Structures are given as C-alpha cells and as structure tokens.
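Form 7-S
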Amino acid sequence: MKLSEAGERALVELARKICRRGPRVRVGIGDDAAAIDIDGSCLVATTDMLVASRHFPPRTTPEQMARRAVVVNLSDLAAMGAEPLGLIFSVGLPRKLEVKFVERLVRGMDVAAREYDTHVVGGDLDESEEVVISGAAFGVARRRELLTRSGARAGDIIAVTGRLGAAAAGLRLLLKRHPAKGYRALVRAQLEPRARVREGMVLARSGVVTSAIDVTDGLAANLWQLARESKVKLVIDRANVPEHPLVRKFVTRYGFGVDDFVLFGGEDFELLFTVRPRGWEKVRWALKRVGATATTIGRVAKGKGVFIQVKGKTRALPDRGYEHFR
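Output:
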C-alpha cells in the first residue's frame, strides 16, 4: 500500500501501535501534543514541519513563514491548555538564498514567539533543496487541567472559538489569484494566523471543559477526531456554526460552496471543545475577559460518528478535510 492510499491518519495509528508508551507518559501519540508527568505537572511537547512548496502560497514573505512556523506549534499547546515555555527550530535552506532572507526569517520567529510571551531558545541549520522549517514547542500544564481529545461525555456542549472559513478562503484567493481588494482579512487569516494560546489556558483552568482540539484540518475532520478519541457521537447544527463574515460574500461572488471553507477548509487555528452544560456560562465569560468569543454548535451524545442538522434534517457529516499524502 502506498502512502497516498493510506493517508496521514493511518500512519499516525501505525506509529501509535509501534511505539511503547513510557510510564511517565500521560498523553502519547495521537493527540495535539504529548504530555509527560513531572512533579505534579505535565511537560507538554509538540512538533510540526513546514515545507515551502507544500505549505507556503506564492509570494509568502520570510516573516510570514516564520509566523506560521511559530503558530502551528503553539496552537497544539493551546489545544492542550498548556502555557508555552519555548520553541526550537530546525531549518533547511538552499545555499543560493541570501543571508538577509535568514535574518528576516529568524527575526520573524523571535517577534512572533514574543507575542505569546515565549521565546525561540535554540535549533539547527542544514542545507536542503527548498526551505523546510521543523519546529517544536514546549509548555507546561497542571496535570488535572490538561485538555485532551478523549474526554468528551454524553450531554456535553460542543463549542468553537472565533469564526471559521477565513484561512481556507484566503488560500483560494492566493492560489487562484483573485483580486484581494475587499478580502484582505481572508488573506491575512491565511498568511498571518494566530494561535489561541490564552483561550486554551482559560479553557483548561475553567475546570469544566472536557476535551479540546485545534481546528487545523477543517471543522468536520477535527470533529471526527474528537468523536473517535472520546468514543462518542457528536451532533452539530449547521445554522450555529460561526462563519467569518467575508467568506459567504467571497463564495457568492466566485461561485464556490460555503461549506468547502467553513466545514471542510482548514488552518483556522480556532479551538473546538466540549464543556459540561453547567459550566458553559463560566467558560463564555472567562473567554470574554481575554477578548475572545465562543459559539455553541451542538451536543455530545451516546453512540458513534458525527452528524449535522441542516434545516431540521439530520445526516452524517463526511469525515473530510486536509490530510497529508492524500
């Protein structure tokens, strides 16, 4: 079987079967990040690789590459509710690049990291055929506050921070070279994303959030990941899913389907989470205090799978979104 037939998720499951889980590992392969028990707390660690030809649209600046490299790693910490401690980067660079490019890249990493009250603390440089940035982020969380994908329970509310679809629409704008006038917020969402680190810490410290994941592969795909890891059924109402206000305007103008961006697009870096019903107002107000919003989009039930209600009718939501190798 080729990788194109297996897909990324099957390979992750393969790794989970092969790699033994150590005695101090609280969360291992298959979640947003790993968590290792250390003196009553957890060291939370994650890694992400970006390859220029696959992950950066044409004309992406070194600063924008750097920001994405920081955000994709910190977003995983956010999904676990961890406070960032630092980042390291291994960077592959073609020898024909100017030194100025590297200076802009590293400076961009430093600026982006400090926006989240953390720092780039080390890394490695090597020669490669194209720009490759492999990052790792480390954070800390109290053991009892750690968020995972596997804690959702029947009766929980399903919620998501922010609004969805902007980054995927921005990518389409860049790749198809549609005029950006009037849609610059969509382009910024793609080129200059933000990690919901403060929001993740708020959710973790609330004591009523039962599971979480960051929305990177698309809402539908990430709902399925939550459902599988928690062994529950998720039912969402399409009318309640928050859309970025420019997305529907964009799809109407160019004839696209809005669900391709809002449900199946990725890279929003919002947090999808479940919360006990009694704690919803507590979470909502806690998020509001840090300048964030969240919207309830459905409920957790007993059973399996992910379902969506559209105009009073319920149907299965396809497990579709971005997946490497496919």
